[in-house]
Specification:
Radius of gyration: 23 Å
Order of helices and strands: HHHHEEEHEHEEEEHEEHEHEHEEHHHH
CATH superfamily of the largest domain: Zn peptidases
GO cellular component, one term: cytoplasm
CATH class of the largest domain: Alpha Beta
Number of strands: 14
Helix content: 40-55%
Strand order of the largest sheet: 1-2-4-3-5-13
Largest sheet: 6 strands, mixed
Shape: elongated
InterPro entries: Amidohydrolase (IPR017439), Bact_exopeptidase_dim_dom (IPR036264), Peptidase_M20 (IPR002933), Peptidase_M20/M20A_hydrolases (IPR052030), Peptidase_M20_dimer (IPR011650), Xaa-Arg_dipeptidase (IPR017144)
Organism: Microbacterium pseudoresistens
CATH topology of the largest domain: Aminopeptidase
Structural class: alpha/beta
Oligomer: single chain
Protein name: Peptidase M20 domain-containing protein 2
Strand content: 15-25%
Number of helices: 14
Keywords: Hydrolase
Distance between the termini: 18 Å
Length: 440
């Protein structure tokens, strides 16, 4: 077992035995920007609340999928322009990305991150309309504070979180190279008074496979054929058998994307797509290799040829929260009357994935979650969750998230001791990491 894999497996084993330390809520030991600035930020968000709610509703009512979010970006940029901020659309060479704000001199630079893409068929069922509106509200509130301090504050619009890896594309283009820390918030289910403080999320890699066989008449001369669909079915069943022997938090799931043209033709081509998820980078690499071997074995068993495409979309790295920043967020959201679970949330491990994970491995960053006040059993990626994003409790969450994001940004930009703690923690976590480092 490699030296880097062992700690990950040890963590999982201790968690299963109940030996993971209980979270302790210590609060933030740093002063941040101070209560007067926090009150100023809250007033600024409240003053723009109708506009932010209108933006969230507009993005909900006119959803656009990844890399096609032209109207969504136009709406966001128009709102920014209404308040005197010019945004660059198509930033970083990504057509539906944008950036506004500035990095001033040698001072610190904080980035607020917006998402706005929708899911096919079910619209804003991951709450990206709330993510965008809260980030815009936070930026508009905190920009005057950053200007007074002479430091940098940016709002970065990142497309195609759902299945395109927009943030990784921006990283590769150097879009985060001058950023020192970043934050965004993600909506979740349940009571608006009970957000998950800072969940860990798995990383994900996509593995696409197309099997090439030989067509034949399925009744007249089946012995002449080599069935590509049989290869896909064998691969699917092989992956299902693999699941018995993976880590508890690991996930592998897939669909058949092409199963042939007609029942009386032995399929000469068939395809499938699998998502491979794990909580650590090295276990993600190892599990992907195991899945690939299953797919190769299915080709051998069916005398077909496998065309395997690993990472047709940039991999999403496991989310890594910065506790020093998270505690500032927690203090801010408590100030809005919300109950926050204890931190650090070492036992809160989510199975979903996000390209925000790539950002958190590239620089100190956080993605806390906030409840929209919907039913506990209505989770993201459900049409009912999309409906929850345009109800009054969601608008309360939007305002609370915007205030807490703005306060966290102002705290970081104002407090050298906090910045030092954030940087020290990030260095202890291994420092800057890119997917290319794992792929070598």
């Amino acid at each position: 077992m490699s030296s880097t894999l062992a700690p990950a497996l040890d963590w999982h084993q201790r968690a299963l035995r109940g030996q993971v330390p209980a979270p302790v809520d210590e609060g933030s030991p740093f002063d941040g920007a101070g209560p007067e600035v926090h009150a100023e930020l809250a007033r600024a968000v409240e003053a723009r609340r109708p506009e932010l709610q209108d933006l969230a509703i507009a993005l909900h009512d006119d959803p656009e999928i990844g890399f096609e979010e032209h109207r969504s970006v136009a709406r966001i940029v128009e709102l920014l322009g209404r308040h005197g901020h010019t945004a660059e659309i198509g930033a970083f060479g990504v057509e539906t990305a944008f950036r506004t704000g500035a990095h001033r001199g040698d001072g610190p630079h904080f980035a607020l991150i917006a998402e706005y893409d929708a899911l096919p068929g079910i619209g804003q069922a991951c709450g990206h309309n709330i993510i965008a509106a809260s980030a815009v509200g936070a930026f508009l509130a905190a920009a005057p504070v950053a200007e007074r301090l002479g430091v940098g504050l940016s709002l970065i619009g990142t497309p195609a979180e759902e299945n395109g890896g927009g943030k990784e594309l921006i990283i590769r283009a150097g879009g985060f190279d001058d950023v020192d820390a970043a934050a965004m918030v993600h909506p979740g289910p349940g009571s608006a008074a009970s957000p998950v403080l800072a969940p860990r999320n798995t990383g994900v890699r996509r593995v696409a496979v197309t099997y090439r066989g030989r067509a034949a008449h399925a009744a007249g001369a089946p012995w002449l054929g080599r069935n590509a669909l049989d290869a896909v079915v064998s691969a699917y069943q092989g992956v299902a058998q693999l699941r018995q022997h993976i880590l508890p938090i690991d996930r592998v799931h897939g669909i058949i994307t092409d199963g042939g043209a007609a029942p009386n033709i032995v399929p000469e081509s068939a395809s499938a797509l699998f998502y491979v998820r794990s909580a650590e980078i090295e276990t993600l690499v190892a599990l992907t290799d195991r899945v690939v071997r299953v797919l190769e074995g299915a080709a051998v068993a069916t005398e077909t040829r496998a065309e395997i495409d690993v990472d047709p979309v940039p991999p999403y790295l496991p989310l890594q929260q910065n506790l020093a920043l998270t505690r500032r967020w927690a203090d801010s959201v408590r100030g809005r009357g919300r109950r926050v679970p204890p931190s650090p949330p070492v036992a809160v491990q989510g199975g979903a994935s996000t390209d925000m994970g790539n950002v958190t491995r590239y620089l100190p960053a956080i993605q806390p979650s906030i409840g929209l006040g919907g039913p506990e059993d209505v989770h993201p990626h459900n049409a009912a969750f999309a409906a929850c994003t345009v109800r009054p409790p969601a608008f309360e969450a939007l305002a609370d998230a915007a205030v807490a994001l703005a306060s966290t940004a102002a705290d970081y930009l104002s407090d050298p001791a906090l910045r030092a703690a954030v940087a020290e923690e990030f260095a202890a976590q291994g420092g800057r990491f890119r997917w290319e480092d794992a792929a070598r």
